[in-house]
UniProtKB/TrEMBL annotation:
Molecular functions per Gene Ontology: zinc ion binding
Protein name stated in the entry: Uncharacterized protein LOC109472811
Lineage: Eukaryota, Metazoa, Chordata, Cephalochordata, Leptocardii
Keywords of this entry: Metal-binding, Zinc, Zinc-finger
Ranges of residues in domain C2H2-type: 277-301
Species name: Branchiostoma belcheri
Amino acid sequence: MLTDAFHGTKEGIDIKYRTDGKLLNQRRLLALTKVKHTVLKDFLFADDCALNATSGQDMQVSTDRFSGACDNFGLIISTKKTEVLYQPRPGKPYKEPCVTVHGQVLNPVDKFTYLGSTMSRQANIDEEVNGRISKASSVFGRLRRNVWDRRGIKLSTKLKVIHTLIEKAQARWAGHVRRMNDSRIPKMLLYGELAEGKRLAGRPKLRFKDSLKATLKSLSIPVENWEDAATDRHQWRRLVHQGAELAERRRISLAVSKREARKAREKNPSLQPLPKHKCDVCGRCFRARIGLVSHTRTHKD
Ligand SMILES: [Zn+2]
């Protein structure tokens, strides 16, 4: 039915991608002869379907085609269950989208859950992260004996252990996508970018692959040729697992040595470095200059 609806159309999201490896090489999408283009029109899973387009006009065209195809196949679109989410370009104002099916305006929404993931109008994942945190509480339960109830590990270290679990999951997923067939949407998206548009200057929003780079480093996996290792599922699993154990041991020993240093200072105050930065206003002393700098700001308001 979707083939019927979207045969020969151009409305959708243009992306360019290149799947021959070197995900973390910035310049790889500049090689015009090797880059492929595709248009993503719909995401379909079980009985959910999401259409996407880059303008309200295009969205209306796609919706009309979809609803026309539904008519042809004797299917009815529930206008009550169908919602529209509009994500304005960065820096552009929001305006209520108006997309209709048989003259009936579809309900505009601020957020939208698709396959258990929440997307928001602001195109950020804050909502998603909050949702995941509550789902993660059962995982926390499993860590109880090994991590939470263990004395001598600071809370921040405990949270870093969670960090390791997340890194493991991210690396596994990246390997999984790496091994996917080139025609799969997740692979095109990981190995591609929007065909048009620029990322904002300054500090642009991080992408999955940006944090993947940090993760690989943390797991002691070579950033340059991780993809070769990831082609073999068993080898990849082993690498990720070893890397995570190493990272965890490193973190814990760092925390332990910090703690010992602190205890030693407490026992023997002469080891304590003298505070050399004094506030001119109230006389409070600071060991580091940065402490004084941020403290001085409190006098300004
Ligand atoms: Zn002061």
